[in-house]
Amino acid sequence: MRIAVLKERANGETRVSATPETVKKFIALGATVAVEAGAGGTASIADADYAAAGAEVVKDAAKGADIVLGVQGPDSKALKGANAGAWIVAGLDPFGQRARVDEYAKAGFEALAMEFMPRITRAQSMDILSSQSNLAGYKAVIEAANLYGRAFPMMMTAAGTVSAAKCFVMGVGVAGLQAIATARRLGAQVSATDVRSATKEQIQSLGAKPIFVESVAGIEGEGAGGYATEMSEEYQKAQAELVSGHIAKQDIVITTALIPGRPAPRLISDTQIASMKPGSVIFDLAVAQGGNVEGSKADEVVERHGVKIFGYSNTPAKLPADASALFARNLYNFLSAFWDKEAGRPVLDEEIGNAVRLTQGGKVVNERLLG
Ligand code: NAD
């Protein structure tokens, strides 16, 4: 069983899909590991560190590979020489990169999309969306604090008092919860909202104030797999009204709302931005999925009505060392959980296999792509 670790080729991608720690663990399972030279450079991991962990550091890592690991989906050039039927295990962006999925099928690869990992307890340690969103939620607050021309905590000084920043988090999934916790640690007064009423308690338990639409039913408990669905027009209208009143009093807004397979819901309009105080900051974590905020542009600080709006196309890539360490562990936890000692390779079960497998036997087989 030969595992390849590729150098990421996508613009702005700084992460790597294996670390010396996970390389060692794969070797302990009986695999050989080939790491493409320079793969860890942007995540502060030297080729020598991979070699010391037992990896072969080579130019053409995919050659002869049975499993190819990536952070993002590799193109056919990067996969040159991989064995017939090789597994490609990465964040494959199945909806956004559909043509590439078709190419994997045509080439006979078995593509496994890590973002399709089911949200079940035993798969938590394999979930790249959670591990990367967690870091993204933290980074969003740090970047917003950096752009904000004032302090976050209340400070009583001899020259007078600085008041605490008011921070509003919209969308309280994994990223939103971390954003609340980070803003609280920095001393902001934090409030938050979501369409899933189950998040109300979570917001309170972090010491923040829940802001919820009460007049129209939201999503009771958890939607399918814990995800949100698109809300009714009536709900969206009530939400916009509620947000308008609240947002005008905020200094920092962090938006994180996503709906799988759909463009991100629009949560903040230009009129609402205009109601905010000049100097306020909005960080749009969903900017790469279409954006929660009108006028937000990836990787560019946009100033509207004196409000700075910002968001990265790839937020976890701004914390390459930690993001790689967690991503690599997710991949190792996934493959090792299914490792069949006799076969000397992982053998997936039906529940997780069917959820993550996009292509097999020359065809696209995943229900979410076919349906
Ligand atoms: P996500 O990234 O898909 O979306 C972020 C948040 O935006 C969600 O909380 C969603 O409800 C919210 N949202 C969507 N539309 C909105 C709107 N119009 N207004 C306001 N908010 C809106 O979510 P996520 O971070 O992936 O987490 C979703 C849930 O799944 C959470 O409850 C999380 O704890 C759970 N989860 C479970 C597992 C597991 O059991 N293995 C793993 C990860 C996450």
TrEMBL record:
GO cellular component terms, A-Z: plasma membrane
MF terms (GO), sorted A to Z: NADP binding; oxidoreductase activity; proton-translocating NAD(P)+ transhydrogenase activity
Gene Ontology biological-process annotations: NADPH regeneration
EC number from the UniProt entry: 7.1.1.1
CDD domains xref list: Rubrum_tdh
Keyword vocabulary terms for this entry: NAD, NADP, Nucleotide-binding, Translocase
Domain Alanine dehydrogenase/pyridine nucleotide transhydrogenase NAD(H)-binding: 145-311
Job of this protein: The transhydrogenation between NADH and NADP is coupled to respiration and ATP hydrolysis and functions as a proton pump across the membrane.
Name assigned to this protein: proton-translocating NAD(P)(+) transhydrogenase
Organism encoding this protein: Novosphingobium ginsenosidimutans
